[in-house]
């Protein structure tokens, strides 16, 4: 059954996804700019070594996980669904980027780089969403094993 969200909750959902994506973009571009300023990365439009693209892939993966965690944290409900929505958007944008730059020359990097970004978008989103501590409907951490594994020392109230 499809659930229709009230406008306020829908706005919070969209805001959570956009905020997480904005954090990821800001971190990625900020790191790129910083590494260029330090002379580690080549100036824009100049070819770069494969090892530097590997470095860029590594921090983009880390930032993708952080962004997805933020999306899950800000989500009004279903944090994993929100995190994966961000991952799907990352997959789409990375795929469009790969197609747009595929044979544009060495300044756009090796062919594996945009493919790596596209292929890691969903796993990063899943990991970020998984790291967020999910809560049960009552607001307590969800726990299926035992009361003690959640850190609770009291029994839940019966209804």
Keywords:
159 residues
Topology:
Elements: H1 7-37, H2 50-74, H3 79-101, H4 112-131
Helix pairs in contact: 1-2, 1-3, 2-3, 2-4, 3-4
How would you describe the overall organization of this protein?
- By secondary structure, the chain is an all-alpha fold.
- It has one domain (about 5-150).
- Helices cover about 60% and strands about 0% of the residues.
- Helix 1 crosses helix 3, helix 2 runs parallel beside helix 4 (about 110-130) and helix 3 (about 80-100) packs antiparallel against helix 4.
The geometry reads as: elongated
Beta-strand residue fraction: under 5%
The overall average pLDDT, rounded, is 86
Structural class: mainly alpha
Order of helix and strand elements from N to C terminus: HHHH
**Count of alpha/pi helices:** 4
Q: What's the N-to-C terminus distance?
A: 27 Å
DSSP strand tally: 0
Helix content: 55-70%
Briefly say what this structure is.
This protein has 159 residues and is mainly α.
């Amino acid at each position: 059954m499809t659930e229709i969200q009230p406008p306020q909750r829908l706005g919070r959902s969209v805001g959570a996804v956009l905020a997480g994506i904005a954090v990821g973009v800001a971190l990625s571009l900020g790191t790129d700019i910083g590494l260029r300023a330090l002379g580690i990365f080549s100036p824009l439009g100049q070819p770069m070594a494969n090892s530097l693209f590997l470095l860029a892939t590594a921090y983009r993966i880390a930032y993708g996980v952080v962004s997805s965690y933020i999306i899950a944290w800000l989500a009004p409900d279903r944090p994993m669904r929100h995190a994966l929505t961000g991952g799907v958007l990352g997959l789409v944008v990375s795929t469009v980027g790969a197609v747009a730059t595929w044979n544009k020359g060495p300044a756009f990097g090796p062919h594996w780089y945009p493919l790596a970004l596209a292929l890691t978008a969903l796993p990063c989103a899943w990991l970020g969403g998984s790291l967020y501590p999910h809560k049960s409907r009552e607001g307590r951490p969800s726990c299926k094993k035992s009361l003690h594994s959640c850190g609770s020392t009291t029994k839940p109230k019966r209804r």
